[in-house]
Structures are given as structure tokens and as C-alpha cells.
Design goal:
With about 110 residues, the protein is mainly beta. Helix content is about 0%, strand content about 55%.
């Protein structure tokens, strides 16, 4: 199993980034996928998840700003992040919940 995350970087407050996670080694389309993040000195938290049927849920702090989506042909899950805030700064991880983790991609939002 591989989960290859990309798309992180440095962005100013109010800016946007799109994270991508390319999955392989398992039947992507039948699995719930998720994005987590871990900020310095804090515990890892669930940011967003999407089921095989396309249902989504978000942590309250990103509702209305972030959108999770998936492409079952490309075996890829995305996280569109708009109106970014400095408190969104973290390493973002792609996950097949309870089973697999990607390597993480750093998002830094400057004020």
C-alpha cells in the first residue's frame, strides 16, 4: 500500500492550496479516505473524510473553507483548502483510516 501526498507549501493568509494523495495497492474506490493534520506541539487531528459513496465530514474549524473530494479512476483523494489561516499550518497526512498513512506534506500559512 502506498499513499503519496503532494501539494503542500508556503502560502499567505487568505490563500489557497490543493493537496493530492495518490493511492495504490488496495481497492481505493470501496474505502473511506481522510486527511489528518498535526501542528507543532499538538496532537494529530482529523480534518476531513470522504466515504466510498462520496459523503463527507469536516472538523468544525475548516467547514466552509476546505473541500475533500475523490477521483476513483485516478485513485486520488484531494483536499482543496481556501481562505487559509496561520492556524492551518501543519503537516497534512493522507490516510486510509485505521490502516494506512501517507508520508505527510507540510502546509505553512504566513500571516
Amino acid at each position: 500500500v502506498q499513499l503519496q501526498a503532494s501539494g503542500g507549501g508556503l502560502v499567505q493568509s487568505g490563500g489557497s492550496l490543493r493537496l493530492s494523495c495518490a493511492a495504490s495497492g488496495f481497492m481505493f474506490r470501496v474505502n473511506t479516505m481522510a486527511w489528518y493534520r498535526q501542528a507543532p506541539g499538538k496532537q494529530r487531528e482529523l480534518v476531513a473524510a470522504i466515504t466510498s459513496g462520496g459523503s463527507t465530514n469536516y472538523v468544525d474549524s475548516v467547514k466552509g473553507r476546505f473541500t475533500i473530494s475523490r477521483d476513483n479512476v485516478k485513485n486520488t483523494v484531494y483536499l482543496q483548502m481556501n481562505s487559509l489561516k496561520p492556524e492551518d499550518t501543519a503537516v497534512y497526512y493522507c490516510s486510509r483510516p485505521t490502516r494506512d498513512w501517507g508520508q505527510g506534506t507540510l502546509v505553512t500559512v504566513s500571516s
